[in-house]
């Protein structure tokens, strides 16, 4: 599904991500500056994004582990998510995200 993603440098991308990937992998594959160094194991925080327009229920809820890691990251806002914890599904169509600062 098409997902609008803005990179750290402001570059806008439209992702045609494959179902089954995590959003972190989809962003990385599209060349955005998302490192995902822990491979989605919720230990690095380098997949931090801001979700700008999620509709209620569009994203999976934040788990306790995700919330705990987010709380340790700089620049966290109410829109913060770990992109490795968001599976790409058709329900993400139209979602708009921004890669968080380093
Ligand atoms: Fe490491 Fe998401 S990839 S926390």
Automatic annotation (TrEMBL):
Query: Could you tell me one molecular function GO term of this UniProt entry?
Result: 2 iron, 2 sulfur cluster binding
What stretch or stretches form a coiled coil here?
none
Show where the 2Fe-2S ferredoxin-type domain sits. Answer: 1-102
Q: Which Pfam family name is an example for this entry?
A: Fer2
Alphabetically sorted, this entry's keywords are: 2Fe-2S, Iron, Iron-sulfur, Metal-binding
Q: Which InterPro entries match?
A: 2Fe-2S_ferredoxin-like_sf (IPR036010), 2Fe-2S_ferredoxin-type (IPR001041), Adrenodoxin-like (IPR001055), Beta-grasp_dom_sf (IPR012675)
* GO BP term, example: P450-containing electron transport chain
- Listed cofactors: [2Fe-2S] cluster
Could you tell me which PANTHER family the record lists for this protein?
Answer: FERREDOXIN-2, MITOCHONDRIAL, FERREDOXIN/ADRENODOXIN
Per the record, the similarity remark reads: Belongs to the adrenodoxin/putidaredoxin family.
Q: What is this protein called?
A: 2Fe-2S ferredoxin-type domain-containing protein
According to its UniProt entry, this protein's organism is Niveispirillum lacus
């Amino acid at each position: 599904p098409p997902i609008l993603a803005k990179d750290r440098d402001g570059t806008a991308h439209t992702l045609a991500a494959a179902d089954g990937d995590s959003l972190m992998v989809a962003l990385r594959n599209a060349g955005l500056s998302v490192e995902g160094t822990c491979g989605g194991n919720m230990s690095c925080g380098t997949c931090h994004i801001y979700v700008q327009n999620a509709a209620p229920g569009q994203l999976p809820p934040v788990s306790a582990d995700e919330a705990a890691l987010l709380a340790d990251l700089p620049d966290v806002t109410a829109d913060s998510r770990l992109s490795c914890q968001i599976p790409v599904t058709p329900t993400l169509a139209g979602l708009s995200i921004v890669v968080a600062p380093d």
